[in-house]
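>> Question from a student workshop board

For tomorrow's exercise we were told to take the sequence and the ligand below, predict the bound structure, and bring the output to class. My setup keeps failing. Could a helper post the expected result so I can at least see what it should look like? The ligand is uracil.
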Amino acid sequence: MSERHDAVEVIVAKRDGGELDDSQIDWVVDAYTRGVVADEQMSSLAMAILLNGMNRREISRWTAAMIASGERMDFSSLSRPTADKHSTGGVGDKITLPLAPLVAACGVAVPQLSGRGLGHTGGTLDKLESIPGWRASLTNDEMLHQLEDVGAVICAAGAGLAPADKKLYALRDVTGTVEAIPLIASSIMSKKIAEGTGSLVLDVKVGTGAFMKDLDRARELAETMVALGTDAGVRTVALLTDMSTPLGRTAGNALEVRESVEVLAGGGPEDVVALTVALAREMLRGAGREDVDPADRLTDGSAMDAWRRMIAAQGGDPDAELPVARHTEVVTAPSGGVVSRLDAMAVGLAAWRLGAGRAKQGEPVQAGAGVEIHARPGEHVDAGQPLLTLHTDEPERFERAKAALESGFDISETAPEPQPLLLGTVG
Ligand code: URA
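>> Workshop helper replied:
Here is what the output should look like for this input. Compare the format with yours to find the bug.
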């Protein structure tokens, strides 16, 4: 088959600051998926996009080409509306776990296709896999059936969904091109649009523990994604939320499941509850069910019922004991005072080094590893009092985890100004 374009022509056009036309974009994404455009050519194009950007038409077309590389799911046969949430990733961000069953308990179906963690941020599937028996892979038919029956599914995206993104994301990861806003936005939105949700809420994280370290870039990413969703007919809104401090009091797989269950039981840390309820409200609004108050469903037990059914439907035992790490070590406060800073990146890195995350795709993770936080910013500690507990199966990991935390917190005489969790809304 003769090709419509060649890779060097497309790379040079973007390298020289030009706009790619629709035909060039359709071709290069398709040809890369087919293996006609080589990895080194696509990495050169990704770098040209990172350096020179793309306009709204180019990003929209690039996203459409990534969707067209695979299958599109269709939930229109369901008896209830659908809503999904995507977080750009943070430390201790276990919100999907209580959120999906909570929204299902409010009468809206949640088809949540999730990923595994890479680097310092945890992956939702890794967290759920710490529950004995739970399985991440479902067929499309099983997913549809569970959505109708239980109302919530959290599972792995099948190989058929946006295969161009799977290939490109792995390439970006090893070529220093992850941070390009057009590539992040099209990567996330191609999967969410192909997944077939009717409405979408984006949680765009800002701060040391996030991809986006400053508010302006986070807002630009949020605006780009909201425009892509809206153009594709998906009602999309984004919340900009703080990720300079970890969410809640745990970072690590089974530790985060335990905390999520506390939230579903009507307790749990205040910030986790507040963000879960704020995102649930936006999802319900997107699905036309703003008449339901999600806060009530956390306290009346119906969100917990939906959680138990969701876990059991995927082979998990909601009553099973969760795995616990074989070793723990306590980090104590070096002086008395008020915790004025607890850095999300430092805690994420420590949890990762303890074995909660992986360095390479495909590596196993430890279910019990992670960091437990005893004092969050604004809380008082005495000298020598426990600040953090580190958990791992391999005690030789403690030293490097402690090194990550060395400059990761401050204790001051006076309390810090309370930092808002919600920093803005787009859409
Ligand atoms: N998550 C994605 O799915 N893609 C990106 O590019 C970044 C985060």
